[in-house]
Design goal:
Length: about 450
C-alpha cells in the first residue's frame, strides 16, 4: 500500500485507497515556547562600556490569536514583550516594552517556523547582567526567556558578546545581522559567523575557526554531525571606531545593521559555516590565533523551531505514516522497540528526502505539518482524529485542495468534492453520511 514521495510531496495513486488502520493514541504535546532573546555587544570608544543590540524573536504559532472581524474573519494576536537587564544587585539597568500585533487571515500553523522579532540599541557599562524577555497576552504571562551575560574588554568576553550571524555578507557600508541572537534555526544551510577581536589577535595572519558539537538535543540523529567552517576566517575589514549612530535597525527586514568604519583597535572576524549536516544541539566555535595558539571559545545553538511533535510519539507517527508505508515497512516499524522507533522512522524518511545532502528533511516536516492540521480540521463527532480519516488521508498526501464543493440536502447522503487543479489533476468525491462520516467514493482525473 506504499505511496511514493517526490520532492514536491505529491504521492502516486497506486494502492493508496485502502481504509486507514484504526488506532487510538494520546494527543500530541506542543512545545510550550519558541521564544529566544537577542543580545549582541560591541565595544565603544570607552574601554568601560559596550553598545548593545537587545531584542526578542518568537514563533508566531506560539501566540494566542483572536478573531478581529466577524465580517472578514481576520485574526489578530496582540502581545506585550518586556525586556529587562538587571545587574548583580538586581537593579534594573535597562527596560523596554514592545506592544505589537500580528495579523493573519487564517490561524497560523503550529509547525511553521515563521517568527516575529523586535530589537533596540543601548549603551551599557561593562559588567555582569541577567537579561529576561517576558511575553504576555491578555494580561497573562505566556512565555519567559532568561540568560546571563558578561561584558568586558578581554578577548574572550569581547568575542562571546559580539557573536552574531548573517546570511549575506556583501561588504558594502554595513553588515545586517539576522534576528537570531545566539540561536541558528535548524534547516539553515549556510551562514556567516561574525565576532569582534582585538587587532593584536589578527595581525597579518588569518585566524582559524572550527565549530564542534558538544551536546545534541535529539538522540535519534546518529553519526559525526557537526558544522564545517569554509573557507578560513578573514578579518580584512575593521569594525566601527565610534559607536554612536553606527548600529541602526532595518525595519523592513527586521534586522539590526552595523556600519563599518576604520578602526585601529578592533577587527570583525568572518567565517562561513556550512550547516547542511548540522543537527539541533549546542555548539562551540573555536577561534584560534595561529601565532600563539590562543583560542577563544564561543557558544551558540542550533534549534529546531516548531518541530513535528507527532514524530516524538512514535506510535502515533507510525499511524499517520500508514499512507506511505508498505505493509512490510509498517510491520517492521511497529515491531521496533519504542526506544528505537523514532530513529527508525527518521532513517525511513532519509530514504525519501528530496535534499539528502542536508539533515533537515523538508518532506518529513511537510508531511507531519499536514498531519497535525488534518487532526483538527477533519475531526467530527464520530471521527475524533481527522488525520486518521479518509479526508485527512487525501489532505496529508496531496495538501489542501484548490477548491471544495459541498452538496448537502436534508434527509439524503451529502457529497463533498475536492478539486486539485495543480499537478495532482484529480477530483475526489466524499459521501457524507447522516452520522457525519466522510467516505471516499470516487476518484476522477481532471
Amino acid at each position: 500500500m506504499k505511496t511514493l514521495l517526490v520532492p514536491v510531496l505529491l504521492f502516486s495513486m497506486a494502492g493508496a485507497w485502502s481504509q486507514p488502520r484504526q488506532r487510538s493514541f494520546q494527543p500530541a504535546l506542543i512545545p510550550a515556547s519558541n521564544l529566544v532573546g537577542i543580545f549582541h555587544a560591541f565595544p565603544t570608544h570607552s574601554p568601560d562600556s559596550s553598545q548593545c543590540i537587545v531584542g526578542y524573536r518568537v514563533v508566531i504559532g506560539d501566540l494566542l490569536f483572536r478573531q478581529r472581524s466577524t465580517a472578514t474573519g481576520e485574526l489578530v494576536a496582540y502581545y506585550t514583550a518586556t525586556i529587562e537587564l538587571r545587574d548583580t544587585l538586581g537593579v534594573v539597568r535597562y527596560a523596554r516594552v514592545f506592544r505589537d500585533s500580528v495579523f493573519r487571515r487564517t490561524l497560523p500553523d503550529r509547525l511553521s517556523p515563521d517568527a516575529v522579532a523586535n530589537m533596540d540599541t543601548i549603551t551599557l557599562a561593562n559588567g555582569t547582567y541577567t537579561i529576561s524577555v517576558d511575553i504576555t497576552q491578555e494580561q497573562r504571562q505566556r512565555m519567559l526567556w532568561q540568560s546571563g551575560i558578561v561584558l568586558g574588554s578581554s578577548p574572550e568576553l569581547l568575542a562571546s558578546a559580539s557573536l552574531a550571524f548573517a546570511t549575506t555578507l556583501e561588504h558594502d557600508a554595513r553588515i545586517c545581522l539576522e534576528p537570531w541572537g545566539g540561536v541558528i534555526p535548524f534547516g539553515t544551510r549556510w551562514v556567516w559567523s561574525l565576532c569582534a577581536v582585538p587587532r593584536s589577535w589578527s595581525g597579518r595572519d588569518e585566524l582559524t575557526v572550527q565549530a564542534r558539537l558538544v551536546r545534541q538535543y535529539y538522540p535519534f540523529y546518529r553519526g559525526q554531525d557537526t558544522v564545517v567552517v569554509t573557507p578560513p576566517a578573514s578579518d580584512n575589514r575593521s569594525i566601527f571606531a565610534y559607536p554612536i549612530g553606527v548600529i541602526e535597525p532595518d525595519v523592513q527586514q527586521g534586522r539590526a545593521c552595523i556600519a563599518l568604519l576604520p578602526s585601529n583597535q578592533l577587527r570583525l572576524v568572518e567565517a562561513l559555516l556550512d550547516l547542511r549536516r548540522a543537527i539541533p544541539g549546542e555548539y562551540v566555535l573555536d577561534v584560534i590565533r595561529p601565532t600563539t595558539r590562543d583560542t577563544l571559545h564561543l557558544s551558540f545553538r542550533i534549534q529546531w523551531f516548531a518541530p513535528p511533535v507527532q514524530l516524538f510519539q512514535s506510535r502515533y507517527a507510525l499511524a499517520v505514516m500508514q499512507y506511505v508505508l508498505t505493509d512490510d515497512e509498517y510491520r517492521t516499524l511497529a515491531d521496533t522497540p519504542d526506544s528505537d522507533r523514532v530513529a527508525a522512522i527518521i532513517r525511513w524518511w532519509q530514504s525519501q528526502d528530496p535534499t539528502p545532502a542536508t539533515r533537515y528533511n523538508e518532506a518529513m516536516v511537510e508531511y507531519f505539518r499536514r498531519a497535525l492540521q488534518a487532526r483538527s480540521s477533519f475531526a467530527t463527532a464520530t471521527e475524533s482524529d481527522g488525520a486518521l480519516t479518509e479526508r485527512g488521508k487525501i489532505f496529508i498526501l496531496f495538501g489542501a485542495p484548490s477548491h471544495v464543493e459541498t452538496d448537502l440536502e436534508p434527509g439524503k447522503p451529502g457529497n463533498e468534492i475536492w478539486y486539485y487543479t495543480n499537478a495532482v489533476r484529480k477530483r475526489f468525491t466524499f459521501e457524507v453520511s447522516q452520522q457525519g462520516r466522510y467516505r471516499l467514493r470516487k476518484i476522477e482525473s481532471l
